[in-house]
Structures are given as C-alpha cells and as structure tokens.
C-alpha cells in the first residue's frame, strides 16, 4: 500500500525522475540525525539535460519556474532514494534556488516559486519552507537553475 506522499504524487499525476548518480566527488544526500541535506539538483530529466541557458536571455520567468520545478522533482527523487519512504519527511526546512541569469534579470524569487509551489503541492503544510533565491552568472553545464534543500525527518 503506497504511503500518503506517494498517493499524493499519484493524485497530482507527478512522476518522479530517476535519482541521478553524482557526477563528481560528492553524495546526493547527507543525513545527520533527523536532518537531510541534498546536494544541488539541476535540470536533468532521466539523464537528459533540459533548460540550458540564462533567464532573461533564452528563458522567460515561466520557463524558469518549470526549470526550478524540475530541480525540485530531482530533489524529492534524491530524498526518496536516500530514505525510502517519503512519509518520513516531517518538514521541508529550507530551499536555495540558484538562477542562471543575465545581470539585468531580477525575478529570481518568481523563478524559485516553481520549486516552492511544488514542495507545498507534494508535502502540504509541511512543504512550507524558508528560502533563498540567488542570481548567478553561470551554473554547471549552463543549466538555467539549481536547487538544494534541507529536510527534517521523522
């Protein structure tokens, strides 16, 4: 029988991507006590990189929100791979959203809403979190967005 969060994902018709293997010398998730820290997750969907380019140049705010959401799906997939059962997530504590953007672009918070909205959709009130949205000059492989997260576990 699927857990509450798995049932919610099915109800929302959200399919998690396959958790990506690390591409360098790090692990995707570190668990310390009842806290899970994810490494930054980028805009990859089952091995294929999406949203390559900058906000304010190749992408609109709406595109950026979709990119941030994809990063969030990858975050959730990594947490699921690490803890097995997403019902063990007590709370989403903090998200940091890095937005690859031109210097004139100032809508990073709107882009980050793509991942913030996802966390509330999936985890309900437990998905409400603290957040930082940061504009950067470039991200690995020139992806549009990268998200890292901190979760409280049961």
Automatic annotation (TrEMBL):
SUPFAM superfamilies: YjgF-like (SSF55298). InterPro entries: Endoribo_LPSP/chorism_mut-like, RutC-like_sf. Residues 6-151 form the Endoribonuclease L-PSP/chorismate mutase-like domain. This is RidA family protein.
């Amino acid at each position: 029988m699927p857990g509450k969060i798995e049932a919610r994902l099915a109800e929302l018709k959200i399919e998690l991507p396959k958790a990506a293997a690390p591409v360098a010398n790090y692990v995707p998730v570190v668990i310390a006590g009842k806290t899970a820290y994810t490494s930054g997750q980028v805009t990859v969907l089952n091995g294929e990189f999406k949203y390559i380019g900058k906000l304010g140049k190749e992408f609109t705010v709406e595109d950026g929100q979709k990119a941030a959401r994809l990063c969030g799906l990858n975050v959730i997939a990594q947490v699921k791979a690490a803890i097995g059962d997403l019902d063990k997530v007590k709370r989403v504590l903090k998200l940091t959203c890095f937005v690859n953007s031109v210097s004139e672009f100032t809508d990073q918070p709107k882009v980050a809403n793509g991942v913030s909205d996802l966390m509330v959709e999936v985890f309900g009130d437990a998905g409400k979190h603290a957040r930082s949205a940061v504009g950067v000059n470039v991200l690995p492989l020139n992806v549009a967005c990268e998200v890292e997260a901190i979760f409280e576990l049961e």
